[in-house]
Amino acid sequence: MRPTGKLHLGNYVGALQNWVKLQNTHECYFFVADWHALTTDYDDTARLGENTLEVVVDFLAAGLDPEKCIIFVQSHVLQHAELHVLFSMITPLGWLERVPSYKEQQQQMPNKDLHMYGFLGYPLLQSADILIYRPAFVPVGEDQASHVELTREVARRFNNFYSYQGKPVFPEPQVLLTRSPKLLGTDKRKMSKSYGNTILLSDEAAVVEEKIKNSVTDRPALTDIGSPDRCPVGNLHQIFSDRERLEYITRGCTTAGITCVECKSLAIQSVNAHLDPIRKRRQQLAQNPERLREIIEHGAQKAAKAAEQTMTVAREAVGLLALKSVAGLVPKDVSTAPLRAPESIASAKNDDERWELQSAGWLERVSKTHPLTKDRPRTFISRRKRKVGVHTATEANGTWIFHLADRPVNVLVLITQDKDRFLHDYVLPPKVVQDHWKQFARSGNGVSITVKRGAAGAALVLNGNEVPIQQYEGNYAALE
Ligand code: SF4
Question: Is any atom of ligand 1 closer than 6 Å to the C-beta of 219?
């Protein structure tokens, strides 16, 4: 239901009254379509929030029970918008341009610029509103049946493009037609807020009385005969009076046997008797605004839970990257991106501190996937008890020189910091370390290893030869 203001008896008998029955037989989702209100009233939103609340109150007053059904506000469940985006990617423009109400409403509102993307797309938003709950049925009046047909086509199209574990994501919901009794407005035109001829669900008894008393009838003169079918007051009897009273006024009207004054006073009794419990519930709600807030919040939570379940499936079906699968999708043996060394390296007081700072980023990145324990300075033990030497050097003319103790390790990690302060981590596996250990330059108790940047990437410089190590960058698998 769009929040265009307080609901009137036309809205009530056209939909709401039926929903109150459906909540006892079906699992139902009812919402106030505040985004839909924006598709036509985008330029006047001053009362949007207030109107939204009014409709929720009308829902509850009319007898929708938050214990039996889910009541919420559309814009509180963001998944509706997300699914709308996905649908908008696969829906041909022609489908939307052909929806009858697209042209009709433009003609009905000549003073309104409705050449808006949101207005064209509103039946698709409606499809998302429906399909996000993967329902079996949509309770609508006949005038809305074409929208449900569009929804079925969208579901079919989505299922043709994407599937979840080989199964379709969306059902093609059926229309659950609501027979809506005819109810003329007090001026004999269709009951509509824009005609100012409504009786509101929230009208006080005296206001209802006044409106019915002033209602146009089907009998201009006392001696004329009339028809309750063509009379707003007669329509009210048809909906709200018991059989006996309806038979009485029908006979009286069609034979000029009663006056319209009497007929109206009976209609006032029937309507007010029906609206009394609704007014009572409204009063109770007004006395407990906290309860109202709670109902709206809980409704949003429950709806969002169901909507999120659908979106989890829909996102995966479309192939979007799920956050939880990021770790699983990152190739294990390729580093994600060069790490930027902390700016504070320059301020390090000594070599050890500089080393800690330079290697901190690398250790943090690696320790998440390959836990390492400290053995001695710059030497770590992997999960499988391999010795891992970690060493850092900063760039000098495209060359890095690492100084380390002449103490063999299984895996050698050489972290180069380039002149832009990016760190690159080359993880030399046991075979490479073993093959080249003896060729590293020696001085005293130490070993120095030179890495050079060449055309093909980083390379070890060994006795004038270059051994490429580019392929080991981020090769964390060697730590296992
Ligand atoms: S008698 Fe009743 S139903 Fe007939 S025209 Fe008068 S008000 Fe309408």
Answer: yes
For residues 322 and 136, what is the distance between their CA atoms, to the nearest angstrom?
A: 28
Going by alpha carbons, the residue nearest to atom 7 of ligand 1 is 260
Interval 388-435: pLDDT, tens = 999 999 888 889 999 998 888 999 999 998 887 788 889 999 999 999
24-68 tens-digit pLDDT: 999 999 999 999 999 988 989 999 999 999 999 999 999 999 999
Instruction: Identify which of 253, 268, 270, 271 to mutate to test ligand 1's pocket (most ligand atoms within 8 A of the CB).
Output: 253
Instruction: Work out the number of other CB atoms within 10 angstroms of the CB of residue 390.
Output: 24
Q: Whose CA is nearest to atom 4 of ligand 1?
A: 253
CB of 66 shorter than 6 A to ligand 1: no
Residue pair 389/398 in contact (Cβ under 8 Å)? The answer is no
Average pLDDT of the chain is 90
Is the entire prediction scored with pTM above 0.85? no
Buried (b) or exposed (e) across 150-160, using 16+ Cβ within 10 A? bbbebbebbbe
Separation in Å, CA 265 to CA 106, 160, 188, 269: 40, 59, 18, 6
Cβ of 236 closer than 6 Å to ligand 1, yes or no, is no
Per-residue HEC secondary structure of 3-66 comes to CCCCCEHHHHHHHHHHHHHHCCCCCCEEEECHHHHHHHHCCCCCCHHHHHHHHHHHHHHHCCCC
Neighbours of 385 (CB within 10 A): 8
Query: Is 228 touching ligand 1 by the criterion CB < 6 Å?
Result: yes
What is the whole-number distance in angstroms between the Cα of residue 252 and the centre of ligand 1?
Answer: 8
Structure tokens at 290: 């906290």
What are the residues facing 401 on neighbouring strands? 450
The CB of 234 under 6 Å from ligand 1? The reply is yes
Closest-CA residue to 70 (of 128, 5, 135): 135
- Please tell me if the CB atom of residue 184 comes closer than 6 angstroms to any atom of ligand 1: no
